[in-house]
Amino acid sequence: MELLKELLADERVLKVAAYIIQLNIDILIIIGLVILSIFPMTMIAAYMYERSLEHGNIPEDEESTDLQSGVSKQ
Questions:
Q1: Residue range 25-62, pLDDT digits in tens
Q2: Where are the transmembrane segments (predicted)?
Q3: Would you say residue 74 lies in a domain?
């Protein structure tokens, strides 16, 4: 217990602990931003693919998956 009190009293230990906590928070923020940036891109890609299917730009084969129902056509 005394060792813990001595460590908490040391300013360098507190600075290192604060740095590690800040680094972990920064990493979590970066991971969150990456996840949030992937979601809209996939939604835009799915929308563009669906529009191109409607206009006949992409040939639809018999084994393709229906985007709205998620079931394969057979």
A1: 999 999 999 999 998 888 998 898 888 888 776 665 55
A2: 20-49
A3: no
